[in-house]
Amino acid sequence: MPLYDLSIAELRAYRGEVVRPDDFDAFWSATLAEARAVPLAARFEPFDAGLKIVEVFDVTFAGFGGHPVKAWLILPRQREGKLPCVVKYIGYGGGRGFPHEHLLWPAAGYAVFVMDTRGQGSSWSKGDTADPVGSDPAHPGFMTRGILSPETYYYRRVFTDAVRAIEAARSHDAVDGARIAVTGGSQGGGISIAASALDGSLKALMPDVPFLCDFPRAVGLTPRDPFPEISRFLAVHRDKVERVFATLAYFDGVNFASTDSTPALYSVAIMDTICPPSTIFAAYNAHAGAEKAIREYGFNDHEGGGAFQDRAQLDWLSGRI
């Protein structure tokens, strides 16, 4: 895949094309207040995953609308005192999968809390959480479900679930609630940016090749799904363009990053044709924190840094939580 986006110099200066709604903060404050009016009711049930050196819990907690959301909590069996915790979100189409898929952080001495993504988990990794909310007419996939209003858009539910997942992780006796980081790749990276800004008290943010950033540029630039789900929807609903992008502004990683001062380590792949590098730099450059860094992988597509980024995260997070 050749270089197709801006030059490296332009990327490092790019600020994005997103307009922040005047009521952005009020919208999310009201959304979270509504969710928190329902008891979190987090349940941690011991789960036999066939893994001897970690302890696994099958978690259920109340997300958006009080809907049950599944997760895994995985802890090192040998531990002293409360553990720092990494809350992990999953890429587009995937679910929480199996516990043995999430052993990096427990192997490094952290707790890991892996949130299932409602309605997903049947494309490449299995999920166990339904999305009981319906939608207006939508293009196949998740990107256009309820897209004609911020109140009904699919990611309002997902981002609310993500904040409640942090609260569920904090509620476990083995977790130090003051030492929590969030991470995820692609969609999981976009969710982590939103969750970090909305929680407002995390120790670290590690979005890996994050999705859901700078919608105005991404939708017209990349040829590979999921962003083109939106352009195909608009090709049919020609009269809904302004309305759609007005909705998306409430869910754009650039707008979340601009309010977040959490220490952050981003990654970007310069040949990424799913999450264009300019859209990731837009979020990174907007990030309000003074302590931030971005790892660039100049010859990679959406696989990004892979194991190299795993090691970079391990090194960067050490001593921060």
UniProtKB/TrEMBL annotation:
KW Hydrolase (keyword) present: yes
GO terms for MF: cephalosporin-C deacetylase activity
Family annotation (SUPFAM superfamilies): alpha/beta-Hydrolases
Domain Acetyl xylan esterase: start-end pairs: 1-318
Signal peptide range in chain numbering: none
Top-level taxon of the source organism: Bacteria
EC number: 3.1.1.41
Keywords from the named record: Hydrolase
Keyword check for Hydrolase: yes
Catalytic class of the enzyme: hydrolase
InterPro entries per UniProt: AB_hydrolase_fold (IPR029058), AXE1_dom (IPR008391), CE7 (IPR039069)
PANTHER family xref list: CEPHALOSPORIN-C DEACETYLASE
Protein name, entry field: Cephalosporin-C deacetylase
